[in-house]
Amino acid sequence: MLAMRKPAARTRRGILDAAYELFHRKGFGRVSIDDIAALAKITKRTLYNHFKSKDDLLVAVLDHQHELAAARIRKHESRYSGSAEEILTTLFSELAIWSKRPGWTGAGFTRLVMELADLPGHPARAVARRHKAAVEAWHAELLKKARVAMPAERAREVALLTEGAMSLILIHGDRGYADAAARAAKRLMRKD
Question: What secondary structure does DSSP assign to 99-131, as a single string?
């Protein structure tokens, strides 16, 4: 029985990987089940054996991406230490580096929620909300360790600056917005 589960798990993972790649590149609305099945090299029937619908697949993709992001954070958490200024320098420097990658399109969770703006009850929005809340809580934890006053409030402000920087980098193609956001975040930390 275990031998039978491994191919099914590989197939499911292949579907998730194909869907993520297409959703990230084209957006949820512009990708069809046929596109995903073709990239995963399976039939539509096989895809539907693993996921009831495109919406269920999207939720699974986002859950998987959240787990991967959490693992990356844990793996590289030691980079985010020291004073609040050092933490913010690292955070926004990494945003600037990330935004230089070829084909960078910003934060997938944010882009997706914007695409689903007219569907407030869509389950993928709940996954995105949990992901963003987890990242914000992680920022609050870092800021608390750096002895920042009101770390949860400051983390919320950092989230606003991060999301704003990503949006403006996409709009203007200017990575200087990451530096501007870092400077603004550091000023906020000094206010208290």
Answer: HTSTT--S-HHHHHHHHTTT-TT-HHHHHHHHH
Q: CA–CA separation, 9 vs 16, rounded Å?
A: 10
pTM over 0.90: no
DSSP code per residue over 167-189: HHHHHH--THHHHHHHHHHHHHH
For helices 123-145 and 151-172, give the axis angle rounded to 10 degrees: 120
Span 108-130, pLDDT tens digits: 888 888 899 999 899 999 999 99
- Dist. CA 182–CA 162, nearest whole Å: 9
- Please choose, from the candidates 93, 95, 88, 100, the residue with its C-alpha nearest in 3D space to the C-alpha of residue 110: 95
Contacts of 1 (CB under 8 A, 6+ apart): none
Q: What is the largest CA-CA distance in the chain?
A: 61
d(CA 139, CA 77): 11
Considering only CA atoms, which of 12, 25, 22, 94 is closest in space to residue 60?
12
Question: In the predicted model, what is the mean pLDDT of the chain?
Answer: 92
Q: Which helix (H) or strand (E) covers residue 67, if one does?
A: helix 54-76
